[in-house]
Write a structure and sequence with these properties.
There is one protein chain. Helix content is 56%, strand content 14%. By secondary structure, it is α/β, with parallel strands linked by helices. The chain has a domain of 172 residues: Alpha-Beta Plaits. A hairpin with a 4-residue loop joins strand 3 and strand 4. The longest helix has 18 residues. The chain is elongated.
Length: 257
């Protein structure tokens, strides 16, 4: 009897779309309803924005203060996120220390404003355990893709995740948006530019965000040049002359393939 009850409980948990700890939507809900929200945006030609968020150093807190304290903090962060968004937005817990927010009808300006609001609320919220006082911070990748036919919800998630990883790699406690031209002009001379991988470039292209790809096009082509050259030889495409010209042009652009 106990085994049957355990199996029934497990089946309910696996079929649930609610995170049992925070009461928010979960990864399953996001995967089921995200594509529907994107489909509606496409039909109505409306924007949609997605935020991927990570609670900075949550696992350190978990190890030092224990599961009970860490989970209480996580529940409160879930409340902060819910309070910062609109009624029509979806907040989901999608990992141990990760969240996602889907904002139908939200343009880039509103998505940025919401992310900055969350960032500020996190910095202002203090926690106390005995005599110890501390604050938690959050990192986020924010995407408002160009609406076009064929756009997949997973592509938006991948792009948001790539930006989140960049925020974490830069030390956390920061938000990563698509850079605009004004921001690039203000960048200090000698500032380190994030070099796109081929996978990141493909995700950006599918999302219709071409500006950053165009900036790094020579280096990206250089990365796949060996593959292009091999394909030309193996498939007998007869592009030897074109491949030589391409390599010479890349060398002129100071690219070492």
């Amino acid at each position: 009897m106990a085994r049957k009850l355990e199996q029934a409980t497990l089946a309910l948990e696996q079929g649930s779309t609610i995170d049992p700890l925070t009461g928010l939507a979960n990864e399953r809900y996001l995967q089921e309803h995200g594509p529907e929200l994107l489909s509606f945006a496409l039909r109505q030609n409306q924007p949609i924005s997605v935020l991927r968020l990570n609670v900075d150093k949550y696992q350190v807190l978990y190890k030092k203060k224990g599961k009970q304290v860490a989970e209480k903090v996580l529940v409160n962060i879930g409340r902060i996120l819910s309070a910062a968004v609109r009624a029509e937005d979806t907040v989901a817990r999608v990992g141990l220390d990760k969240f996602a927010i889907v904002m139908p009808g939200a343009n880039e300006k509103l998505a940025r404003k919401t992310a900055e609001k969350i960032h500020l609320l996190m910095q202002k919220t203090g926690y106390r355990i005995g005599n110890a006082r501390f604050r938690m911070t959050i990192s986020a990748g924010v995407v408002t893709p160009t609406i076009r036919e064929g756009l997949e919800f997973d592509e938006i998630l991948q792009l948001a995740e790539a930006r989140l990883k960049k925020a974490i790699a830069e030390g956390g406690n920061r938000l990563i948006f698509e850079e605009d031209k004004a921001a690039r002009k203000k960048k200090a001379p000698g500032a380190i530019r994030h070099e796109l991988t081929v996978d990141e470039a493909l995700v950006l292209i599918r999302a219709g965000e071409l500006a950053k790809v165009k900036e790094q096009l020579p280096s990206l082509i250089c990365k796949i040049y060996p593959l292009m050259n091999l394909g030309n030889k193996q498939l007998r495409l007869g592009l030897d002359g074109s491949m030589i010209q391409l390599k010479e042009r890349l060398q002129q652009l100071k690219q070492k393939c």
